[in-house]
């Protein structure tokens, strides 16, 4: 019955790769330790040992070599990261709307009945969803139906039978 256990320990006092190799060599030579690997930049030891062995025995070996060991702290991250990000986005939007920069989106032309094919092609390029995964493209909007009806009733009928929006 294979009852191997894998644990991570934060090792303190490692100053060079020779320190890393010294600890790994001592642990690998210990009966019951299957593997030991230290990530030098983070000083995190990943050790796999027999389930009958105790983690305290591994910590004693490390301390006998002159290094310290402890359980690594879990990275809590920033608890309010999402809230801060949304506030920054809101602030930037409000500043840009006050300056009138958001009116640039009104500069895109709207498809009308007398519009040429070239302009419709340009509008399609500017407004297309290349991934096909936009939640907005799940329905047909009134703007698409009006644009399709400008080309005749057969275009509007074929458009209404599709489940994608041109905008």
Q: What does this entry look like structurally?
A:
The protein is about 40% helix and about 15% strand. It has about 170 residues and is α+β, with helices and mostly antiparallel strands. A 4-stranded antiparallel β-sheet has the order 2-3-1-4, with helices on one face. Helix 5 (about 140-150) packs antiparallel against helix 6. The longest helix has 19 residues, at about 80-100.
What is this structure's SSE topology?
Blueprint: E1 4-12, H1 17-28, E2 33-39, E3 44-50, H2 55-64, E4 68-70, H3 81-99, H4 117-127, H5 142-149, H6 153-160
Antiparallel strand pairs: 1-3, 1-4, 2-3
Helix pairs in contact: 5-6
Summed up, what is this model?
With 167 residues, this protein is α+β, with helices and mostly antiparallel strands.
